[in-house]
Amino acid sequence: MMLTDLTLAAARDGLRARRFSSVELTEAFLSAIAALNPTLNAFITVTAERARDQARAADAALAAGQGRALTGLPLAIKDLFCTQGVRTTAGSRILEHFIPPYESTVSANLLRDGAVFLGKTNLDEFAMGSSNMTSAFGAVTNPWTRRGDNAALVPGGSSGGSAAAVAARLALGATATDTGGSIRQPASFCGIAGIKPTYGRCSRWGIVAFASSLDQAGPVARSVEDCAILLGSMAGHDPRDSTSADRPVPDFAAACARGVKGLRIGVPRQYRADGMAPEIEALWQQGLGWLREQGAEIVDVSLPHSKYALATYYIVAPAEASSNLARYDGVRFSSRTEGDDLDALYENTRAAGFGPEVKRRVLIGTYVLSAGYYDAYYLRAQKIRALILKDFTDVFARVDALVTPTAPSAAFAQGEKMSDPVAMYLNDVFTVPANMSGIPGLSVPAGLDARGLPLGLQVLGRPFDEETVFAVGAALERAAGFAALPAMRAGA
Amino acid sequence: MSLDPAAIRRIARLARIRLDESDIAPMQADLSGILAWIEQLNEVDIEGVVPLAGGVQGVALPMREDVVDDGGVVDAVLANAPDRQGDFYAVPKVVE
What we know:
The complex is a heterodimer of chains A (about 500) and B (about 100).
Chain A: H1 8-16, H2 22-40, E1 43-46, H3 48-63, E2 74-78, H4 105-112, E3 116-121, H5 160-167, E4 173-178, H6 184-190, E5 193-196, E6 216-221, H7 224-234, H8 252-255, E7 264-268, H9 278-293, E8 297-301, H10 309-324, H11 342-353, H12 356-369, H13 375-395, E9 401-405, H14 421-425, H15 432-437, E10 441-448, E11 454-461, H16 466-480
Parallel strand pairs in A: 2-3, 2-4, 7-8, 7-9
Antiparallel strand pairs in A: 1-3, 4-6, 5-6, 5-10, 9-11, 10-11
Chain B: H1 5-14, H2 21-38, H3 74-78, E1 84-85, E2 88-89
């Protein structure tokens, strides 16, 4: 077995037992990145020298018996997290030259626990997309291909670079963010695990803002337990984010071994959408069967307003984005395109710096917040958001978790679904309700479709009950025994 | 809801994004399509519902002490400015 094949938990154990060093582990990943990143484009920036320095320091700490939770473990950081002294682009031309003078809280927490950072991963521009096609730094290629077909597939989005990097074994795990499904959908498309924790579990400080009431950081990794280990380091209260939850961080990794005996698992009947692919429906039923065999009770439940979550999202998220992205004005920290006066400078800078999807969303958001339309769109959306949350609150009085498919399809080809924005938005139909309501959601690789592409199942849980989500996710993972490997990976 | 070209120009102006004439028609088609799809929300009964603004549940937003806890980092603040003069951001002349 190559070092790059290890799970994060196994690599941690190997480092602690001194079977290999962090420098050896880090060099293995840097070699894999050098070999595969020209094809996959998963990283926008590789910080090889910094990673080597961190690895040497980690080895010294381990030798001195001062290892912490993640000491010496090489990770990738989505290029939406500000990293002190390392360019942070958000996948946008407008931040092409932005070098943050500060470190995001989540990445600082990982550094505190000893992690090694390999570099910054590609993403849809400002995390707006489900395919990674909107990045100003080029598309990311999914390491998986269809059987008998070499067409380049999307890794999903917006955390497509993070998911592709982890699936191809270019990092042990990666940070990601999820505003409408941007952790879970790419995890499903790339055959890995990923969790969006409860809103407030991780600090948003230093993460380039998209939609502040929806954005939440989380990890992607190759196992549920690896996600639990990473989230344990990423999470925690931060006074610099007023929406960060001041509550203890449980031992998420321990929860993975709990099992599901006696748990009540809800199946929302509205998710059985018209035209669901039969193989996704079949995998869903199989997943429920695995949980039943392990002692869970399966309960039919109703979330009557979930079908409106996606359209509601496309009012709330663009509204918040139009406000958040107002700061990119060509004056303070973005690229500038000159104009004859200040207004022309703003307009030219934003025309040149933003890509088409970002412009669409900023314009939609500007419109739904504008005088005369606010009540009809934004206020109505906030009321429907309350109804979506109430559905979940009612259901979680009866069940401990919900299980659904993560996405309505497997990975699609680069260039597909690009002509109609709404067709692209439908990727997030199963994931968006968790963002609207703030609840945690995990995607677990559970099977392959007829063409050999991975499909994920989603576990949703009560607010701040990630432990049950991890317990259910780990139970699905054990039963699925997902061992398929992508065509493009380190050493293949 | 369909938007006419004048509405697209007005919204782009509010958002401070310059659109070329050739951008108007595609943007009009995209935004009208999105708004038409969003119209499904009109069928939801929202009578008496209290709007929900955020994702944090059951937690009052905290107040902090009104004290200065940061600052004195002018060069860090200005490090990413496209143009600066001394300790200031520089922009085109605003007042004649």
